[in-house]
Design a protein that fits this description.
29% helix, single chain
Amino acid sequence: MSDTSVLPHKMIHFEDVSKHYDNYTALRKITFSIGKGEMVFITGPSGSGKSTLLKLLYRAEIADEGSIRVMDWRLNTLKESDIPLLRRHIGVVFQDFRLLDNRNIFENVAFALRIRGVDEKDIKARVFDTLKIVNLRHKSDKYPPTLSGGEQQRISLARAIVSDPTIILADEPTGNVDPDTSAGIIRTFKDINARGTTILIATHNRELFRNTGRRVLKLDFGNFAGEETA
């Protein structure tokens, strides 16, 4: 059950969060907050805990210590049956795209709506509107293997935003694309954020957030290493 009495202005809040694996600690006593409508970057070298932090937010992993809140939910005590409801409010953009190669672009994006039981007429309108946002409406009948890496990443982004999520999490969203495509993807994130969506982007590439004026949270091999404004 959600708890609406705590931290109403904070979309995400970590308090002394640690995550341990058999032979190492991925995150160690991490504390930070992200407010509603913010677009925040989290950076650090490979292995610093960025992906683990994102997985904790959509409950692919569970913290070993500390507390996590996302919107009104206490993730530490969230029932398994409530995880799908949490995830309906979160769009995730994966570094490796995770597209279905045997389905065309329209079907890849529509999939996120079909599992929610959205009416087919509404699905068609929402998918085409979303593909326009990422400038790939004209590729709706193509299949992922025929697209460039940048195009596949934009489809991954479309799939994440088609359900109009409250929060978007992006794990190295430009890790497999060229600099020009990276700049375009960040512009798209900014446009989505301007509509009120809270966005957290994990990246090791400092060029992505240079001169953006956004908060940057820094991780250093599992430790919180402070924050700056880019």
